[in-house]
Amino acid sequence: MSQGSLISDVQDVQLIDLINKGIAYAIIAAGFLSVIFIFVGGISFILSGGQEDKIKTAVSTIRYAIIGLVITVLAVVVVNALGKIIGISTTDYISFAEIVRLIQNISDSIKNSGSSTSGSGLR
Questions:
Q1: CA pair distance 1, 43, nearest whole angstrom
Q2: Domain encompassing residue 51
Q3: pLDDT at position 47, please?
Q4: What pTM value is reported for the model?
Q5: Number of folded domains that form the chain
Q6: Residue 31 covered by a domain
Q7: Which pLDDT tens digit goes with each residue over 89-102?
Q8: 121 is a domain residue
């Protein structure tokens, strides 16, 4: 095996891993945002106070969030089916441990950026 083909194989593997992780994270983000918007719509509905226009806005928010969640689930099914055909496996990257690690990394970065700006004035 030559040096050039080894580098090409490594780049192909990295590209496939990058595509897999990108698809997996996009699906996770879409599902998470759909659930967040369902909660926002529910809170808006509760706080509408019986006003017709606010109720319609809240109901449409919930409706579109549920449609988004259904599309996300269908996307998972389609991506996994196509992935099996062409050899890409996103399910390897969508594990509960990976999701928890990603959320912890995001929350740690938010905490670090918030503490560096807010705590500098007091001693």
A1: 61
A2: 7-109
A3: 93
A4: 0.59
A5: 1
A6: yes
A7: 666 666 667 767 77
A8: no
